[in-house]
Amino acid sequence: MDTKKCDKIFNQAIKSKQVHEFVLFVENSNGDFSYKNEYGDKSIDSPLLMASITKMFTTTCILILLEQDKLSLDDKVSRFVDKKKLSELHMYNGQEYSFDLTISSLLFQTSGLPDIFEERKDSLKKRVLQEDFNINFDEIIKLTKQLKPHFAPDAIKRAYYADVNFEILGEIIETITASSLEDAFQSFIFKPLGLEKTYLPQNEHDFIPSIYYKERYISRPKFIKSSRASGGGISTARELMIFLKAFFRGKFFKKEVFHQLNKYKKLQTSMYPIQYGGGYMRIPLNGLSTVFVGKGELVGHSGSTGSFAFYYPHKDLFLVGDVNQFANPALPIRLAMRIALSIK
After folding, report:
1. Distance between CA atoms of 44 and 321, rounded to whole angstroms?
2. Which candidate, 172, 222, 159, places its Cα nearest to that of 71?
3. What ranges in 108-177 are assigned the alpha helix state H?
4. pLDDT by residue (tens digit) across 172-206?
5. How does DSSP classify residue 102?
6. Which positions of the chain have pLDDT values less than 70?
7. Which is it for strands 91-92 and 95-96: parallel, antiparallel or unpaired?
8. For the chain, first and last CA: distance in Å?
9. Of the candidates 89, 41, 185, which has an alpha carbon nearest to the alpha carbon of residue 81?
10. Strand 48-49 to strand 234-235: parallel, antiparallel, or no bridges (unpaired)?
């Protein structure tokens, strides 16, 4: 495979004022094609913030529990989460839908629940840019209740991306396993794959990388530790590649279980061209966003801090990287699309 275009895209990216560091790692299934490039302080083994790529780890736990018959995607959330906490979480057009929410509603982002990270006038994103702070599950639920849902659960052919969906899934995993989410990740994912530099940070000794916001370099360890199931994971490009291959090549669950996830719905307009399946994103490469020139799709996830982990089945390529830039969440997606389309 020709890598000259990869070099060209990489070199163009690092000329951007917003890109202070960049790591890119591309491989095919068996590793006989492998490309990597590094810039700034980021190497293939440097810690990186997975941000929302963590959702794929949460999804993995849910599917393993599904295979173990510990849950069903149709199970009501109220089976696992305190009914008092759920009460009035989803009030839409004068009706309560809190007890209609299912695991599927959360996993596929079809709950209609609002996103406190982006939506409020005093959104968590705005607050994160000003200060570091802890926020626990009860506070996330309380803040979500202060906003209006966008639709009744599973009522329309759309999805609405909201971190709260995955925070609730994290609580469900803890309830079923009677352990912490960190321990569930460890026993279901990190240990079986031999991941030694991938973790959910728990205490002040766990290293948490700082983030660029435009030119500013900010440290937000408290908030990242609070983001657990929706975005709190730390990894490296090398270990993320191992996980990504395992996720899409059937190491964790049977194909028939995995095929339950590939029903995709469009997300809110601000996230175009991303669609959402069960716990991961799909980006079509043959639409308006690529002026119809591409073939196939990217499946995987990106993170708001500039990380990405995608599989391109059409060319059997896995793309992992991080530009560590919080000011432009579309940047890693655009880069992944360009790289996928460039490799012949």
Report:
1. 9
2. 172
3. 124-130, 137-145, 163-177
4. 999 999 999 999 999 999 999 999 999 999 887 89
5. B
6. 1, 287-294
7. antiparallel
8. 6
9. 89
10. antiparallel
Closest listed residue to residue 117, CA positions, set 107, 127, 109, 108: 127
Q: How far apart are CA 191 and CA 182, in angstroms?
A: 12
Distance CA 160, CA 269 (A): 10
Summarised one tens digit per residue, pLDDT across range 142-165 is: 999 999 999 999 988 899 999 999
What is the C-alpha separation between 262 and 280, in angstroms, rounded?
9
Structure tokens at 188: 């279901």
Q: Which of 75, 27, 11, 42 is nearest to 306 (CA)?
A: 42
Contact criterion met (CB below 8 Å) for 79 and 103? no
Q: What is the pLDDT of residue 1?
A: 63
Please give the structure tokens belonging to residue 208.
Answer: 């948490």
- Compute the C-alpha angle 327/303/342, nearest 5°: 90
Predicted local confidence at residue 123, as pLDDT: 87
Q: Is 37 helix (H, G, I), strand (E, B) or coil?
A: strand
pLDDT of residue 260: 85
